[in-house]
Amino acid sequence: xxxxxxxxxxxxxxxxxxxxxxxxxxxPAAAAVYAFLVLNYDPSLVSLADRLLPPSFxxxxxTDHLGRDxxxxxxxxxxxxxxxxxxxxxAAVAIGxxxxxxxxxxxxxxxxxxxxxxxxxxxxxxxxxAIVLTGLLGAGLENLLLAILVVKWVxxxxxxxxxxxxxxxxxxxxxxxxxxxxxxxxxxKHLFPHLIGHVLVLASLDVGKIILLISSLSxxxxxAQPPAxxxxxxxxxxxxxxxxxxxxxxxxxxxxxxxxxLMGLLGxxxxxxxxxxxxxxx
Amino acid sequence: xxxxxxxxxxxxxxxxTPVLLDVSFALEKGQCLGLVGESGCGKSTLAxxxxxxxxxxxxxLLFEGVPIHGLSERRLRPYRKHIQAxxxxxxxxxxxxxxxxxxxxxxxxxxxxxxxxxxxQYANRHDxxxxxxxxxxxxxxxxxxxxxxxxxxxxxxxxxxxAISIEPSVIILDEPTASLDxxxxxxxxxxxxxxxxxxxxxxxxxxxxxxxxxAMSQAIMVMQDGAxxxxxxxxxxxxxxxxxxxQELVAMFE
Lengths: 282, 254
Prior knowledge:
CATH architecture of chain A: Orthogonal Bundle
Pfam families (chain A): BPD_transp_1
Structural class of chain A: mainly alpha
Radius of gyration of chain B: 18 Å
Oligomer: heterodimer
Number of helices of chain A: 11
InterPro entries (chain A): ABC_transport_permease (IPR053385), BP-dependent_transpt_permease (IPR050366), MetI-like (IPR000515), MetI-like_sf (IPR035906)
Shape of chain B: globular
CATH class of chain A: Mainly Alpha
Subcellular location (chain A): Cell membrane
Radius of gyration of chain A: 23 Å
Keywords (chain A): Cell membrane, Membrane, Transmembrane, Transmembrane helix, Transport
Protein name (chain A): Peptide/nickel transport system permease protein
Strand order of the largest sheet of chain B: 6-7-8-3-9-10
Structural class of chain B: alpha/beta
């Protein structure tokens, strides 16, 4: 009886969490629709007559120091910050996972070389590598993305490799060999399904970090360049006007916090859904 | 010509102690050859060598007169459609992330266009799973289930279905009933025996269970410390000239 009750509460809690998550995901979607329907400002349109306006019907969140509509820039900033963050992440997964599977499956010299390279990358903090690389390649969002890719593929390669290492000695891989499957097919059909859950969880936790990285590097001027509507860059531009119009810094900051939190929740949700914990701790 | 012939096989691991010592035998078409011995005597190593998972140090392995030892994975692949296997632990032999049907399909997707099937006629994937599950006496509804939803006996039947799907000439049965309960053991042995008669597949039946080997096989080999110490026809098990070790094994069952 007690057991059944506990089961019910936990399912209820899970359902509530799913509902909350969907509700939170609905907000950016609604914002995107709003942006599509309502936006009638050019995000880079400078109008000095309208600078630092308080919220009004025409400008729901007011205007910045160059008279640009803040809401427009915030919504388009989602595309820059989140969109580019996802892009960098997908590229990192697309490079790291196949390399890791291959290294884990082949073993030997190729594996050792790849893992030493990975160790070398891992020994520097993400932010330092990203700053150095963008410093060398020149400031700009494209170079920042490249730097993030260089920093991030390593953890996916390691994750894929360690999963493959635990799986490849199992009898079903042996049977796949006996059944005549080629190595490529063993990797894609038999080993890849074991990775998806782990990769999704790590990726959703990483998205938050990448967004923070893009925003913080843009804030110090190494990422998105003005007048691009990127949240970190907006924070930086608003800094001198903090006393006159504090909301200019509050809005982009809130957006970053909100998206990073949301991605963390999404990671939790996926972890439950794919039961990664249960597999890791049998 | 024998279907599968091993000639003076030697094998040792890096530690130097020999695991297989001068092992020779011949498996004839449609025959069940039993191999009995205690755990650790080298039975499974022999199975792995026959399957090309491990290389032998000396001697030769012939499939229909053609040497297949020492081949690279790529060169060995064409022979894999003739030599299939059922392993001891069915839970490990099925990928937990794939449905039963997806696991069953592996050999057929690889070799379906290279083999001429006499018994099975697959119209499509659905029909494929249905026929095979029927052949191993499992309900067709299991095709879309995952391994953890099946019992141990059901899982072992599924791996048997996978092994027979392309009608190989030989199946290496490495302790196929060791992880099953007594009732499932008897049922699976009965099934294997019927399938051999139906499909004309030869078995190398490896087990520590002399009674099971005796019930299944036409000829029996006894292995002790990597060497085959006795080799005889089923009827000769109780003869007085049996090797002392064989007599010891027999005595344990009486």
